[in-house]
Structures are given as C-alpha cells and as structure tokens.
Design brief:
The structure is a single chain. By secondary structure, the chain is mostly beta strands. It has one domain (17-169): Lipocalin (Beta Barrel). It has two helices and ten strands. It has helices at residues 35-39, 182-188; strands spanning 40-41, 44-45, 49-54, 60-69, 72-80, 109-117, 120-128, 133-141, 147-153, 161-167. The strands form two sheets. An eight-stranded antiparallel beta barrel has the order 3-4-5-6-7-8-9-10.
Length: 201
C-alpha cells in the first residue's frame, strides 16, 4: 500500500509516484492557523492549511497539514483512510530511510523544503512511504486557494506527474488533536542515563 496513487510503477525513474504521499497508504495516493483568509496574501494563496488527497476512485486517501516558516513549507500526514477492499491502514513507515524507518505514519513529515515563489513552491522533496523513495517536488496553489497541485519528479519536472489535492476547512482537525511529528518527538526524547560504576567493597 502507498500514499501515492497513480504514479508510474516499474523503475524508479518511471515511478514518479510522489503524490503517493496523498494516497493514505494504498498503492495507488498542509496547515497553520488562520485558514483561507490567512492563506490569501499579496504573494498569492498560501499552501498553509489542511489538504485532502484521493484514491483513483475519488474517495479520500489522506489528509495533510502544511505549515510555512520563513518562506519554506512542509506538510505532515495527519489522517489516513483505507481503500474499500482494505481492512486497515498502514500504521508505520516500514520502508522509510534512516531514522524514519519504522516511525508512525500519522504526523510524519512527507513534504519538505518547499521554497515559496508567489503561489508556487519549489526545490522541495516528497517521501513515498511505500518504498522509502524520495523525489524532487513542486507545489502550486490555485488562484482561488482551493486546489493544490503537487508534482513529483526525478531529474526534470517535465518528466514528473501531477496530482490535485483539495483544501479542507481550517477546523478539519482541532489543533489539540493533531498527531505530533514522531521524528520531532524522538529528537526530544532524553537518552537513558548511564549507570554509575559499582563501588568496590
């Protein structure tokens, strides 16, 4: 299962299955307070907020929460859905690279390093949790702020594929109920104290 739907399979170079980040873990598939009003700025609509990705059948596959800091945006997976023929969603990122391997899916930062240029975000990356692949990525918000176009690619953007996500209400998930970023939590976790050497009698 994967979070990206509709991305070419086969080789890694043809598998620009980026948007998988959207498919809430089925082979096939952002946020800050303030909402659409906040998102509309002189530079154009912002990616900040909640977005929904869908499976190929049109049903929701995942919800993502995007924040933006100093012109750089990132998006976390905050809710997953299973396909009609699935009994449960994937709970951990079995194939994620490095320290992310085995991390909980909910709260995991999937989209990183997106630098804003008006309504477009570039030079970022998207993680495909199906196999741990990381792709180059671009984002663009529609003029009305209601659609997000996520393009994943290897090499040149022209070789990639684009998926469309839909903006959700600002209160889609209460702030207090948002799943924390598991990697941030792991970084803050104190290490076990070393045992003091036993004293000789």
């Amino acid at each position: 299962m994967g979070l990206f739907s509709g991305f070419a399979p086969a080789s890694k170079f043809s598998r620009i299955g980026l948007l998988a980040a959207a498919s809430a873990l089925s082979a096939g598939g952002f946020f800050v307070c303030g909402g659409l009003a906040f998102a509309q700025s002189l530079a154009g609509p912002s990616v900040v907020g909640f977005w929904q990705s869908t499976f190929d059948d049109g049903n929701p596959s995942g919800w993502f929460y995007f924040t933006e800091n100093n012109g750089v945006a990132e998006g976390r997976l905050v809710k997953t859905f299973k396909k009609a023929d699935e009994t449960q969603t994937v709970e951990t990122c079995v194939h994620c690279p490095g320290a992310m391997k085995g991390a909980p899916m909910l709260g995991l930062t999937i989209v990183t390093g997106m630098k804003r240029h008006g309504a477009k975000y570039e030079d970022g990356h998207v993680l495909d949790p199906r196999d741990g692949s990381i792709y180059n990525a671009q984002l663009e918000v529609s003029p009305d702020g209601q659609k997000l176009y996520l393009r994943g690619y290897i090499g040149m953007p022209i070789l990639g594929q684009t998926r469309t996500w839909t903006r959700l209400p600002d209160d889609a998930i209460p702030a207090a109920a948002l799943p924390p970023d598991p990697m941030a939590s792991a970084a803050k976790k104190p290490s076990a104290p070393s045992k003091a050497p036993a004293k000789a009698l």
